[in-house]
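User: Sequence in, structure out. Go.
Assistant: Echoing your sequence, followed by the structure tokens.
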Amino acid sequence: MTTFSRRQFNSVAAAAFAANLTRSLWAREVPVDPTGRKFYIALVADTHIIDSFYVKGSENGAEDNESILHTTERLTIARDLVNSLTPAIDKVFVLGDYFHNYPSTDYDFYFKNTTRLDNAKAITDGFKMPVHLAFGNHDYAVKTVDREMSHRLFKAKFNAEPYSVVDHKGVRFVLANNFLGSTQDRTSPDFNPGKGSLGETQLQWLEAQFAERKPTYFFIHYPLIAIQPTEVKDFGLYPLLQKYKETVQLVVTGHVHKWIDYQHTYGPQHYIMAATRYDQNALMLLEIDSHTGAYRWVNQDLVEWTTHFAKPYHQG
């Protein structure tokens, strides 16, 4: 028989209470759409799943050391909530830091052992809807692990590419990768892991996606302020977002682990979202109009801005 400490019991009870309130919000705020134009997506960021090889106490400070031990349960609670919603969520997008660092630099190690990669996949395989992945800095280890090895592992374990596009009901979702440019290449003179860059090949691909003028949602791990504005003369992410600001409906990023609103600083609306690592309520639930591409952030009122947290919805 499974036993729980008082603290564990209270944590589970609080999570269940919050989930019930969020379901109540969803039922009230998302009526059945007789036109069939509306569909729903969920965004999750910075899940940071670990495994039995993880060394406890290896983070920066007490809050990080405590939170990393709860990433599995918090992502599981978030998943179960998403699965419970009616109308149903069509797709889930994970905005990087799917797992937390590499326990080995040996590729074969990940096929001889059950690791955090397998643990992360086992949780997200429990979603009832497709899950699409973007890369985060902890999904790489650019100082010690070749990026090509990370790409091979993502392909073998998750069938995921370094960057991708998902078209759904007339709307485009771009999952970009800010770890493919020179700032993330340890052989480059401008190597700087804290600064994102996309690389010319991906930038050309990105402009091709935007140029089709489909209503587009742009997801990438680093916030735009931490990404190199231009990379090839005047060609880069910032000019592209300005050029296609009528096409790009929304930019959402992760990495910072807090809710931050950059408004239209870079052209399209840009939000940084918080992390399920710290709070299972850190979800973005979007209603999207398939005819116009416009969105409504259904649970935005739950957000506690500039913190890790989102509060449960309280009626009345």
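User: And one key feature?
Assistant: The chain has one domain: 6-302.
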